[in-house]
Amino acid sequence: MIQTLTFLQLILVAAVFVYLTVNMIYLVRLAPISHKLDGVPLPMVSVCVPARNEERGIQNCLRSLLQQDYPRFEVIVVDDHSTDRTRELIQSLAEQDSRLLALAGEELPDGWLGKPFALHQAFKKTTGDILLFTDADPVFDSRHALRTAVVTMRERELDALTLMPKMEFGSFWERAVQPIICGFIASLVRFRKVNSADRESAVGFGAFLMFKRSAYETIGGHEGGKADVLEDVLIAKRVKKAGLKLLVADGKRLFSIRMYYGFREIWIGWRKNMFAAMQRSVVVALYYIFMVLAFVLTPYLILGWNVTAATGALWEGLALLAVVLVSAVAIKTCDELGLHRANACLFPIGAVVMAAIIINSMIQVLIFSRTEWRGRVYPS
Questions:
Q1: Dihedral sign, Cα of residue 183, residue 115, residue 213, residue 44
Q2: b/e for 334-346, b at 16 or more Cβ within 10 A?
Q3: What confidence tens digit (pLDDT) does each residue in 193-244 have?
Q4: pLDDT for 116-174, tens place per residue?
Q5: Domain boundary residue among 210, 225, 259?
Q6: Residue 107: Cβ-neighbour burial (10 angstroms; 0-12, 13-18, 19+)
Q7: Closest C-alpha among 55, 105, 107, 61 to residue 80
Q8: Which of 114, 97, 107 is nearest to 50 (CA)?
Q9: Is residue 152 part of a domain?
Q10: 67 and 12, same structural domain?
Q11: At which of 259, 276, 297 does a domain end?
């Protein structure tokens, strides 16, 4: 039995290794564009930011936006009934810079989720031909982020652009769990297909969703997905279904984000949408739990089993080869995320926690019929 499991384990690991390697070939990576575009008029850009209890990072986010070298832009921030100092911090910056418009959020209507409604309110105040929807915690490390995105939209004749940020990690649990989940999400994005006009495959990243105004209005904006927990993914799918051109790209050289601080925030933050991302299917969820554990954790267990059972050089060698391939992927993931390679040792722990989060997300939806985020509880 152990020989059969060792062989099957190696086949699975090798297949995933090849898939991930080939998939990364098609990843588009954006580099900052800093040169002036003489004689080329740049469109007005409206940046929309939803904020609910974001006092920890809202000022860093807004300051990095206001420091962009782009000549024509405005930033519209909607305070979504924060109970901390978010509104005060936004207002303080708005008083210092006329390009920043601070809005007090309206009461949440029936049928809407908080974030889509906040972005819808911001959109109604926009004046730009280009719309950027972002979150309240990214930091735009490059002063050329807006310029780079707009030029990319123009040169590639895009209707929409979504960028993956550089991830920042602090605590032990962030370094253990976040890379696994980020790597898992990236592995599900088939970059060749999502960037093909002939395919309806699409993905969006809520930290950076840029649209031509005409494209955004064509798909019905955020009002067209007012109850979507995965509003970023589903709005991207609507772009592709409408026959519009979308580019999914790596924007790590443009902006960064520390999504969650510590174990509790990681758990609650991913629990809200993990099961929804798996089509609310128990079969799909269990399949992904199996795949994550089978790729990240079990190769080490099977190697240990082979060594303990003294199955011989051949089977121990095959088990070791599987571990080498998994370790190579873990190290490459660390390199992509800017983590020290030693953090690859934490990935098996992260895989177990991710599996537990998926199970808890299923329980929240199937048993309690609810989704919780930012102090609000929504019926599923």
A1: negative
A2: bebbebeeebbeb
A3: 999 888 888 999 999 999 999 999 999 999 888 877 788 888 999 999 999 9
A4: 999 999 999 999 999 999 999 999 999 999 999 999 999 999 999 999 999 999 999 99
A5: 259
A6: exposed
A7: 105
A8: 114
A9: yes
A10: no
A11: 259
